[in-house]
Specification:
Chain B: One of its GO terms (molecular function) is ATP binding. The structure holds 2 protein chains of 2 kinds. By secondary structure, chain A is an alpha/beta fold. Helix content of chain A is about 30%, strand content about 15%. A 7-stranded mixed beta sheet of chain A has the order 3-4-5-6-7-8-9, with helices on both faces. In chain A, helix 4 packs parallel to helix 5. In chain B, a hairpin with a 2-residue loop joins strand 2 and strand 3. Chain B is an alpha/beta fold. Chain B has 12 helices and 8 strands. Classes of the chains: A alpha/beta, B alpha/beta. Chains A and B meet through helix 5, helix 6 and helix 7 of A and helix 5, helix 6, helix 7, helix 8 and helix 10 of B.
């Protein structure tokens, strides 16, 4: 890892939307989990950081702490400028269980976050190479997957298969969305099936596991990448640590279910720091692209 | 019988209900159990093997609860570790190779939560089963016989036909777990059971399962032969139909079945 990310002079947040929809005119600084004010305190080391500097440095603190970032910030960090075209932007849940209070909470969260659900998906380019991409946003119902995210992901993989393009998915999710019950569970099968079809066509799928990736998302598309990357320190697991502690009645070892633990146990290909993510993805795409270049639109 | 979702939860968990092995013993002939995932170990929470159904060789996989504490400890209360799911997948791939249809009996509170399960990739094991089952070139029938808990149940449930017994439950999480997450109070499990819509009748209405298998009055434990006979009838009809489909048709229909949820 780059021990002093503050040396990086590059701006992390740039304009990436190719044709920016009205709904996304919200300035990125208005997003809820962006640190507010001029100075920001790092929950990792307690140090006070100049917010602008933090934004420049991909929201990583010198101490190694990673601030959680929104889907739009993530897209800005990895995609080429002006390359993103969002898909299925208005796709929303139809509250299939008619679950008490869910409909209202959904609308409230949509208003608060400016998101329609916990995944932004579309087509973009990295280092000039086109790719389909989906990014989960943990600020929306903990990034939990219900019917909206399941449908968006299935469509993403189906479109990518049709156009013979790769898919990159950044996961950040507490798992399946409780309020949609059995429908959320079935999204795991649906998305895994779409991944399998895309894979059978010989196409590349990269997952990037970010903090947190647990439950039904880990037990479906997060773990199905041809290449699985992770951010340092990200919590990744099937059961949440609290549930495991309760089940087995003992304290969990230090570093349990962190990205480094998964690397050690053989479930992650590489841990990639945030400042190196774009170039890593670009390099991976490039290694898989020689077959595509003749018949794909490279923007 | 008009019984509440919470009563169904309790009924589905009764230790005297027929378990996976009861179905295997009464539906199939010449069952030969096969063990191990070839990577790490043998998980007794899942029983798998080959047998005859009439004269058709089939692969049978069942999550297995125990009848008493000793059996339940051996079976880990039917909560599989990753090696259980990997064993199931190994047997399914074997079935595909030899052109055998697959019958799965689902009965689990959920996949096991523990340090070892995480170290050996519980999430990866379930995910791989979901993706592989979707593309398997042989018919799959899954029956939720009692309790279908979360991804741990779904990992045997990506099938051409999915059935539930009349008083079985199938849900995203146990009602207790659900209540502790959403209502921050595990004792509100009864409310959760109502809100979750986890009964066979709910799931059939949603179009998530293909049918409900009738139980005798009072529940499956009152007449093993009756309920197991009913399960046998369903398998018999479906196997003939599914075996008549081409591989492409079979896989495409399976994909669309889940795609449309």
């Amino acid at each position: 890892m780059n021990r002093n990310p503050f040396k990086t002079k590059q701006y992390a947040i740039s304009k990436i939307y190719r044709s920016r929809p009205q709904e996304h005119k919200l300035p990125i600084e208005d997003k809820p989990n962006v640190p507010e004010g001029i100075m920001t305190k790092c929950p990792g080391c307690g140090k006070i950081i100049y917010t602008k500097l933090l934004l420049k440095n991909y929201k990583m603190c010198e101490c190694g702490y990673y601030f959680r970032i929104s889907a739009n910030e993530r897209l800005a960090m990895v995609l080429d400028e002006d390359s993103f075209v969002e898909l299925d932007q208005q796709l929303t849940s139809r509250d299939p269980l008619n679950f008490p209070g869910y409909g209202d909470k959904l609308v409230k969260t949509q208003t608060q976050t400016g998101l329609v659900d916990g995944l932004v998906s579309g087509k973009g380019a990295i280092c000039g190479l086109p790719t389909y991409i989906g990014v989960m946003d943990a600020s929306f119902f903990m990034g939990s997957m219900g019917t909206a995210i399941g449908e968006k992901l299935a469509r993403l993989f189906e479109r990518a298969k049709e156009e013979k393009l790769p898919v990159i998915v950044f996961t950040a999710s507490g798992g399946a969305r409780m309020q949609e019950g059995i429908f959320s569970l079935m999204q795991m099968a649906k998305v895994s099936g779409a991944v399998a079809k895309h894979s059978k066509a010989g196409l590349l799928y990269i997952t990037v596991l970010t903090d947190p990736t647990t439950g039904g998302v880990t037990a479906s598309f997060a773990m199905l990448g041809d290449i699985i990357l992770a951010e340092p320190g990200a919590l990744i697991g099937f059961a949440g640590p609290r549930v495991i502690e309760q089940t087995i009645g003992q304290k969990l070892p230090q570093g349990f279910q962190r990205a480094e633990f998964l690397l050690e146990h053989g479930f992650v290909d590489r841990i990639v720091t945030r400042d190196k993510m774009k170039e890593t993805l670009g390099a991976l795409l490039k290694l898989h692209y020689k077959d595509y270049t003749s018949n794909t639109n490279l923007f | 019988m008009n019984i509440s979702p919470w009563e169904k939860v309790k009924l589905a968990r009764m230790p005297i209900r027929p378990t996976g092995l009861d179905y295997i013993d009464r539906i199939f002939e010449d069952f030969i159990e096969l063990h191990g995932d070839r990577f790490y170990g043998e998980d007794r929470a899942i029983v798998g093997g080959i047998a005859f159904f009439d004269n058709i060789a089939v692969t049978v996989i069942a999550q297995q609860k125990g009848r008493n504490t000793k059996e339940n400890i051996a079976r880990n209360f039917s909560m599989p570790h990753p090696e259980g799911y990997r064993k199931a997948l190994r047997l399914m791939k074997q079935a595909e190779k030899f052109g055998r249809p697959i019958i799965c009996f689902i009965d689990t509170p959920g996949a096991f939560c523990g340090i070892g399960a995480e170290e050996r990739g519980q999430g990866e094991a379930i995910a791989t089963n979901l993706a592989e089952m979707m593309m398997l070139k042989t018919p799959i029938i899954s029956v939720v016989i009692s309790e279908g808990g979360s991804g741990g149940a779904l990992a045997l449930g990506v099938a051409d036909r999915v059935y539930m017994l009349e008083h079985a439950i199938y849900s995203i999480l146990s009602p207790e777990g659900f209540a502790s997450i959403l209502y921050k109070d595990a004792s509100k499990a009864e409310t959760a059971a109502n809100d979750m819509k986890l009964t066979a009748q709910d799931l059939y209405q949603f179009g998530i399962i293909d049918g409900i298998i009738e139980e005798p009055y009072g529940g499956a434990h009152n007449d093993y032969d009756y309920v197991i006979g009913k399960v046998r009838e369903v398998i018999d009809l479906d196997l003939k139909e599914l075996m008549g489909l081409s591989v492409d048709e079979l896989i495409e229909k399976r994909y669309q079945k889940f795609r449309n949820i």
